[in-house]
Amino acid sequence: MNAKPPPALRLGRPERARANAAQARAMLSACRFCAHECGADRQTGPAGLCHAGPQARFFAAQTEVTDELELIPTFAVALNGCDLRCAFCISGADSWNAGASAPFDAGAAARRAVAALDRGARTIMLLGGEPTVHLPAALEFVSLLPADARLVWKTNAHGSVEARPLLDGMFDVWVADLKFGNDTCARSLAQIAHYSAVVRGNLLWAAGRAELIVRHLLMPGHLECCWKPAAQWLASALPGVKTNLRGGFWPAWQSRRHPQLRRPVSAAESAAAWAWAQDLGLNLIP
């Protein structure tokens, strides 16, 4: 006779999210939500590389149609603050500045999200910045949403091992970035160490617990060093995983500090990137 699952696993998603949110809130005094694991005390104010304090803030909450076709229209909530410092960040100051914009009210956001579902949105998405640095608020938001809503976690995949149990079972889809194919580029362009081991580990973990979509933004001058190694790893470690090779790079934010990033991706680079993906048999999606 099969043993009964633990009581926590028998609870519905809103109830589990509420319990996880309380646990995450208690962890703010020695924060280890992201892989920096800095242990900063965020209860007393902004701290750590993300500069986030106890109060989450948000810079957008609206229905959007620019994500993967199978997810849109999505009601997307973007939280301020991030644990990476990507020079090419498309949302720039909003993503980097955890203290900007308006305080995040999970209840108000949930009501707007439910209204969006009633008007035809297919999914609800949490993103940033990086939502992992605001796990208490993110999980509180999830606890207030319908149990059958299709929830999407849009992440840079640089969360910590400690964050994984809090996220387990909370989201139906993970849309996760695989930004770099090596640690050298990650250190130069995002001020991050040990990138590959952390992100690849989180992608493997997420693939076993939710539907996974991996995004890679093709960057000028980074076909050989970033896309090709990333694509090879995906083909080997996560065969068949949905992969969105994103074009449209433009020299945003601090890209000018890096000579290779001062231009768009060339037509030749784009064609080569797609050919490489097809040769490897990647499951490319729009």
List the helices and strands and how they pair.
Blueprint: H1 7-10, H2 13-26, E1 57-64, E2 74-79, H3 92-96, E3 102-103, H4 106-118, E4 123-127, H5 135-143, E5 151-155, H6 164-167, E6 173-177, H7 183-190, H8 195-207, E7 211-217, H9 223-237, E8 242-246, H10 267-280, E9 283-284
Parallel strand pairs: 2-4, 4-5, 5-6, 6-7, 7-8, 8-9
Antiparallel strand pairs: 1-2, 1-3
Helix pairs in contact: 2-5, 4-5, 9-10
What do these coordinates show?
This protein is α/β, with parallel strands linked by helices and 286 residues long. It has a single domain (11-42, 57-284), classed as Aldolase class I (TIM Barrel). 35% of the residues lie in helices and 16% in strands. The chain contains ten helices and nine strands. The protein has helices spanning 7-10, 13-26, 92-96, 106-118, 135-143, 164-167, 183-190, 195-207, 223-237, 267-280; strands at residues 57-64, 74-79, 102-103, 123-127, 151-155, 173-177, 211-217, 242-246, 283-284. Strands 3-1-2-4-5-6-7-8-9 form a nine-stranded mixed β-sheet. β4 (123-127), α5 and β5 form a beta-alpha-beta unit. The longest helix has 15 residues, at 223-237. 46% of the residues are buried.
Features of the shown structure:
alpha/beta; TIM Barrel; globular; disordered N terminus
Q: CATH homologous superfamily - what is it?
A: Aldolase class I
**Large-scale geometry:** globular
Based on DSSP secondary structure assignment, what is the total number of beta strands? 9
Low-confidence stretches: 1-9
**CATH fold-level label:** TIM Barrel
Order of helices and strands: HHEEHEHEHEHEHHEHEHE
Domain count: the total is 1
For the largest beta-sheet, the strand count, sense and barrel status come to: 9 strands, mixed
Q: What is the CA-CA span between the terminal residues?
A: 45 Å
Largest beta sheet: what is the strand line-up? 3-1-2-4-5-6-7-8-9
